[in-house]
Amino acid sequence: MTSIATSLSELGFAPVLVMVARDAKDQADGLCGHFTAHAESQLGLASLATSAADDSRPTAVDGARVYPNLGVVYGTVDRAGLTALRADSRVRSVKAAPQLSLIRPVRRQAAASTSAPAWGITAMGIPELWEQGLTGAGVAVAHLDSGIDASHPAVRACIAGFAEFDVSGRQVPGAAPRDSDEIDGHGTHTAATLAGRAVRRRRVGVAPGAMVHSALVIEGGDVVARVLGGMDWALGQGVRVLSMSLGIRGLVNDFLGVVDVLRDSGVLPVMAVGNEGPGTSRSPGNYPKALSVGAHDENMTVAGFSSSQRFARRSQPVVPDLTAPGVDIVSARAGGGWHALSGSSMATPHVAGLAALLLEAEPGATVARLERAIQASAVRGEIDPARGGRGAANGPRALASLLSRR
Amino acid sequence: MADAKRTDPELLRQLDEAKGSGAAVSAVVKIKRRRGAPPDSAAVEARLQDAVDRTREATGEAPDDMHVMARVGVAYVNGSERFVRSLVGQPEIDGATANEATAEA
Q1: pLDDT: is B53 or A30 the higher one?
Q2: Per-residue pLDDT reduced to its tens digit, A352-376
Q3: Do A168 and B105 touch (CB under 8 A)?
Q4: Which of A 70-129 lie inside 8 A of B, CB atoms?
Q5: Interface pTM (ipTM) of the complex?
Q6: Region A303-313: what's the mean pLDDT?
Q7: Looking at the complex, does the CB of residue A131 fall below 8 Å from at least one CB of chain B?
Q8: Those residues with Cβ within 8 angstroms of residue A104's Cβ, 6 or more apart along the chain or in another chain
Q9: Per-residue model confidence (pLDDT) at position A51
Q10: What are the φ/ψ torsions at residue A292 (nearest 5 degrees)?
Q11: A35, A145, A329, B6 — which has fewest CB within 10 A?
């Protein structure tokens, strides 16, 4: 985690998160003059468009992004800007850019036109489960991410609920579905991989009958209570699976208790392991009680960027548990169309979608039984256990394993 | 007082920094619960209230803001350093973390 001082010293600017004083929330725009645009910064802020029409959407000013509902301004500052922010009475606090973040895709590219299912769906043998009539129908899945573009035809019909959360974990009243990630449309992409409906014969969703409860818990500056608010809300929606492609670098105990809560509440936590390569991982994906997912490519090789790590613990010493397709994954693009992204974020909804298919087949399956079936399905092939855990998740093998343990 | 073993080091750092400055601190606290079963929402709220009441008595202060997420057994709290530090040390609290998971300069 890089401090503001280190960033200023090394780069001349620092990405910061500003919490606006509660009584100055409507004056957040006025703080933007303290920020400076830097194209090299994490979000490429210099390329942002100017403000949107809807007051609830983030507005962008050179160097900064304002989140009016949250009372947060996120952007880059130089030394003078930092001094000015700290002296400004409208500012409650100034922090370095937070650790909790999207597990950002490592590559993005346009998608070619096709009528075949996305390669990852075929590689996992999912069409065999579809042929048996399994689509995930009747299964509710939680999707904690940057939100979802409800206008996209792939996800329009799969959204059972949407909620946005503020920094205290409270639900923002009346929030309409949106994808806050203006760079990749991360949430829209992962949601469509999880449960996207067919669009003119293009099929990108693993469980095209599942219903998604999507929580916007991460955008710009992000805080623990937002994610927990999303989890709390999801538990109230009766979900059976939780798909989360975000995390904190390293082994951090912040979420340790809530992963246990999810399992005790009958919810399988499916989480991305990270994109920082061997010897790294993110929390909570690296907890023993999370089903952690790494990424493999079409050659069933673990992607070089996919995190993996060994811990000195008896239970689940190696993460990820297994891998799933995570390279050049075509899915819905927020704003319309399709694009391919690569990352363990993309692999995670493949496994969450598989869990939904399995739960349709066996609605009474416990979290432990469901997880064991998915783990047992993994095909080792050439995958190094130190990099890919048990191997590549496989749909038909998971179903067979689940049904054999009735 | 805050138990260093159960408290996120970043929160401890923020508490130390806020001491004397009067700045508010935001934390997420985990409420003790019986393992193996989903949290009992009513029990979570009751335990938290006990902890808050005891903290109020000990510090003479109240939280600036509090929001319980009972289904996951946690609560967001924003208050003075004195209040938050005392709350985190209450027997009903099973751990705490900084809400704004960031590092200061």
Answers
A1: B53
A2: 999 999 999 999 999 999 999 999 9
A3: no
A4: 82, 92-93, 95-100
A5: 0.86
A6: 95
A7: no
A8: A184, A186, A275, A343, A345
A9: 27
A10: -95, 140
A11: B6
Cα pseudo-dihedral A170, A171, A173, A179, rounded to 10 = 130
Q: Is A307 an active-site residue?
A: no
Q: What percent of chain A has pLDDT over 70?
A: 81
pTM here is 0.80
Give the single-character DSSP code of A147: B
Looking at CA atoms only, how far is residue A78 from chain B in angstroms? 13
Across the interface, of A223, A228, A265, the residue whose CB is closest to B38 is: A265
CA distance B102 to chain A (A): 5
User: What pLDDT, on the 0 to 100 scale, is given for residue A142?
Assistant: 98
Spatial strand order in the sheet of A159-164:
A159-164, A211-216, A140-145, A241-244, A268-272, A291-296, A322-325
Interface of B with A in 32-61 (CB under 8 A): 33, 35-39
A17 touches chain B (CB under 8 A): yes
The whole-angstrom distance between residue A69's C-alpha and the CA centroid of its chain comes to 21
Report all structural domains of chain B as residue ranges with CATH numbers, in order of start.
Answer: 9-98 (3.30.70.1510)
Q: What angle do CA A230, A164, A167 make, to 5 degrees?
A: 75
Q: Per-residue pLDDT averaged across A302-326, rounded?
A: 95
More confident position, A255 or A284: A284
Show the domains of chain A with their CATH numbers: 4-97 (no CATH), 102-404 (3.40.50.200)
| Closest Cα in chain A to B67 | A168
Name which of B39, B78, B99 is nearest A224 (Cβ-Cβ): B99
Separation CA A332–CA A284 (nearest Å):
26
Q: Is A104 exposed, middle or buried (0-12, 13-18, 19+ CB in 10 A)?
A: middle
